[in-house]
Amino acid sequence: MTEYTEITVKDDGPVAVIHLDRPEKLNALTEAFWPQMRDALARLEASGTTRAVVLTGAGDKAFSAGGDIAGFGELDGTAAKRAFQADCLRTFAAIEESPLPVIAAVNGYAFGGGCELALACDLVIASERAAFAMPESGIGLVPGFGVLRGPAVMGRHWTKWMVLAGERLDAATAERVGLVQKVTAHDALLDEAVALGQRIARAAPLAVRVGKTMINRGVDRGETGYSLEAVTMLQETADTAEGIAAFTEKRPPRFEGR
C-alpha cells in the first residue's frame, strides 16, 4: 500500500481498515487528507480482494475533530477557497459512490468534517463515548456536505438543530435520530465494525454493489454546485475571518453579519 501522511490503511483481508491518523491533533483534516482518502479508496476498489471498508480514528479521543481551521485562514483568494471546497465534496462523493460499503466506526469526537464523513458513510457504529456536532456557524461557515446530506439521514429539523445552533449529539441521541445505527462499548467498537464488514463481505459482491447504488439513487448530485458557491461566498466574509481569528486566539467571536 502507498504511504500516506494523513491516514493509514490496513488491507490484509476482505475488510480494509482506514485510520484517520493525526491523533495528536484529534485527527483534524488537513488539505492533504482529501486526495489521500480518495486515492486509498480507489486502490481498495481496484484490489479485487476488498469487500468492505471500515473508517475510524487513531487514538482514543476522536474520530475527527473536523477541518484544520487554521488552514482555512491560509487559503489565498476565491479560487483557492473554491478549489478546496470542491476537493472536500469530491471526497464525500467518492465515499458515497464507492462500490465498496464504507462503515464509520466513530470512536470519539466527530465534529465538523468528521461528522460529515460519518454522514457520507453507508453505516455508522459509534462508541458509547462518541459525540457528533457540526458547529461551523461558530466561525461563520456552514458544513457544505452536512447541510446537503443531513436532512436525508436524520431529517431537516435535527440537521437545523446541529447546523444553526451547533448542538452536540451524544451517541444515544445520534442513534435515536438515525445518524448512528448501533452504539457499542468503546473497547469493542473496532471489532464490531470489522465483524459487520465481514458479514457484508460474505454476501454476493455484485448484489451488495447494486443494492448500495439503488438505495442511493435518490441522492441529488446537482445540489453540490449550490453548496460549493455558498460556502466559497461565506469563506470570503468578514464574519468568517473573525471566526477563524477568534478560534485560533481562543476567544469569543464578534460577528457583524458581513
Plain-language structure description:
It is an enzyme of class 4 (lyase). It catalyses: a (3S)-3-hydroxyacyl-CoA = a (2E)-enoyl-CoA + H2O; a 4-saturated-(3S)-3-hydroxyacyl-CoA = a (3E)-enoyl-CoA + H2O. It is a single chain. The chain has a domain at 7-186: 2-enoyl-CoA Hydratase, Chain A, domain 1 (Alpha-Beta Complex). 47% of the residues lie in helices and 16% in strands. It is of the alpha/beta class and 258 residues long. It is globular and about 55 Å long. Helix 1 (33-47) links the parallel strand 2 (15-20) and strand 3. It contains eleven helices and ten strands. Strands 1-2-3-5-7-10 form a six-stranded mixed sheet, sandwiched between helices. It has a four-stranded mixed sheet with strand order 4-6-8-9.
In short:
Its EC number is 4.2.1.17. This protein is 47% helix and 16% strand.
Please outline the helices and strands.
Elements: E1 7-10, E2 15-20, H1 33-47, E3 52-57, E4 62-64, H2 69-72, H3 78-97, E5 102-106, E6 109-111, H4 113-120, E7 123-127, E8 131-133, H5 146-154, H6 156-165, E9 169-170, H7 171-177, E10 182-184, H8 189-201, H9 205-215, H10 224-235, H11 238-249
Helix pairs in contact: 1-3, 3-10, 4-5, 5-6
Tally the helices.
11
Q: Biggest β-sheet, characterized? A: 6 strands, mixed
Strand order of the largest sheet: 1-2-3-5-7-10
Shape: globular
**Helix-strand pattern:** EEHEEHHEEHEEHHEHEHHHH
The SS-based structural class is: alpha/beta
Q: Identify low-pLDDT runs.
A: none
Tally the beta strands.
10
Residues in helix, %:
40-55%
CATH homologous superfamily name of the domain at 7-186?
2-enoyl-CoA Hydratase, Chain A, domain 1
